Amino acid sequence: MGLLGMWVTFLMTPCAYFMGRKWNLLDLVTAGMFVTIHVLCLFAPFYFSWPLFLLAVVLGYSTGLGVTLSYHRNLAHRSFRLPKFLEYFFAYIAVLSAQGSPIEWVSTHRYHHQYTDTEKDAHSPREGFWFSHMGWILDSNRRFGRYGGLKNVEDMKRQPFYRFLHHTFLLHSVILGGILYAIGGFPFIVWGMGVRMTAAFHGTLLVNSAGHTWGYQAWNTGDLSKNLWWLGLLGLGEGWHNNHHAFDYSARQGLEWWQIDVTWYVIRLLEALGLATDVKLPSEAHKKRKALETRKNMVSHEISHED
Predict the structure, then answer these.
(1) Distance between CA atoms of 67 and 101, rounded to whole angstroms?
(2) What is the mean pLDDT of residues 139-166?
(3) FRET label pair with 17: which of 53, 71, 131, 259, CA 20 to 30 Å apart?
(4) How far apart are CA 140 and CA 106, in angstroms?
């Protein structure tokens, strides 16, 4: 397929997906937010300054770290424990990313690991790269209909704080936007909301799409998860995705010394301060067993390929 054909396919796939489907209020709000933050980015060159760039970077990395540290490693996988005040603090920082409530995000991710790259996976690239990147998040009926709703997060639904955030999560981003506008006007909205949220959204969504498409597999996980170095940098350590699917309970995803994992460095600091406890890591015995499974799988694949 030529370059023109690739671009036509990329542009037509979302159009074909949107046509002939039912939209509910949540999907319309989500689509409207996506369009709004991307349109705001168009104004960024006209309002560029280094302080505004720094604003986007600081807010982007802070809310992004909230997602990776709180939503993902702490709440979804319970790979470490925090005092409740600190657990709730990081969860609130993650809410300001506008990537969903803690209950919704964690539920989808737990189902992702339960049904990785099968027909029940919420965002597998088996249904197309575009679907795994953005299409899935714009179709809540299809997403939650696959497994009957929020049935795997009872531990979080019992906590009033998470129930509150579940019903109000977008409101907190609106409040943040109002604060930014009061401080610096429209340029602060462009960089502090538009640029920051667009970059953070795509950084997270690339783990679902690129992290199951490109890169290499260090471990036999039986799915499409890959390790991708540039996604490891962009996603604060989340790009070592094959490592994560091999040891999903691990607080550390960059298992080699050269695999940069910013989220793990923060967890390690919290542990050193006595704030993070019960930090889970794969034992050497577990890694050796997984490595042996991988080698056996590779040999079996080579033999079957020769036959």
Answers:
(1) 10
(2) 90
(3) 71
(4) 15
